[in-house]
Amino acid sequence: MKSIEEQQSSTINDTCNDCGSFVDIGTVLDEQDTCMTLSFSGVDAEMKAKELATLALARFPGCRAQLEAEASGCRLSLQFDVSAEKLIFALDNGLTG
Fold it and tell me: Is residue 45 a contact partner of residue 73, using CB atoms and an 8 Å limit?
């Protein structure tokens, strides 16, 4: 592990600062993982879902949003062009879905 760290460029940090584990980017980003599904509940569920869809579409023009009614609220599916967009959107908006 130490030899890997010594060999990597100083501009690349692929080691976890908290635990020291080496991270292979391919384990973080799966190129097929482009769909984010979020469920919303409560009286303002549809409004919240539409606001989030608007944010996604504004940031990533190729993104497609689908809103479906559920018994307890609604479900928003966001289909991104690439998995990095999904990850960036999730991080920007504090999402885990």
Answer: yes
